[in-house]
Amino acid sequence: MAVPRSSKAVFWIFLAPVLCWLLLLIVLPHLDLLRMSFAGENELGDMTWTLQNYRNFFTEPIYWNTFLRTAVFSIITTFITFLLAMPVAFYIVKVVRPRLQGAMMLMLLLPFWVSELVRIYGWMILLRESGVINHFLVKFGLIDRPIEMLYNDATMIMGLVYTSMLFMVVPLISVMESLDDSLIEAAYDLGSSKSVIWFKIILPHCKPGITSGSIVVFMLVLGNYLTPNLMGGKNSLWFTEQIYNQFIASFNWNQGAAFGFLLLLLSSLIIWIGLKLSRQKLGEVAS
Questions:
Q1: Residues of the chain with pLDDT > 70: what percent?
Q2: Pick the CATH number of 53-286 from 1.10.260.40, 1.50.10.140, 1.10.3720.10, 3.30.565.10
Q3: C-alpha to C-alpha distance for 83 and 178, rounded to whole angstroms
């Protein structure tokens, strides 16, 4: 059956702003950055095409060490976020009474109504040497003097997990709502243990939500600048800080563009590997 011309016109009218947004704010800036990543200057100051910006990454150990460190810590953070988000999603969907689910979701969303900067400074107030936690530990005699809890990898990972938790919980809740309770009840009646139920019923059913949540969290953590810089301190060695330094501190936009595309390549590669290992397609995860 042929689609009326009026319907096609309405479709393109609504689609046009989306296409313009993608073209002007995503496609064209990235194409320009890609061009800049291959640009350089010769001895006369003229612009030339070169791979030197990418060679600098492999010839300087600080760059590729930071690059690998960022990838590893992003994967660790994503895994920890999943471990914490899974029981939270299950509790909200399957344990809490239906009339209280809305309140639980509101409690989950409430911290994210505040800017990430404010939330991170809140954690810093709690964890610093003169902070609330040290104050009570000294007051109750648990420690003799305040200890420095900030500016280490463990604190940085904790901050990254906290700032990205919502983006893992929401996809898990959406897929877990379609899980039939009778499957879990039947497994209990047949004598299955809790671990068997989790690994044979719940986790396979939630695989699309796990994959989509992991992709979002990994991308957010990999590209995060604020949390590693504030909670990790000078020794955080996060690759986004290297990109920032090239763009802002050194004003070397060509090198910064090359670093940015290397980070994009890394994230795309790890996501592709994750989809292959989970035997899913990107369209299935996004739907």
A1: 94
A2: 1.10.3720.10
A3: 20
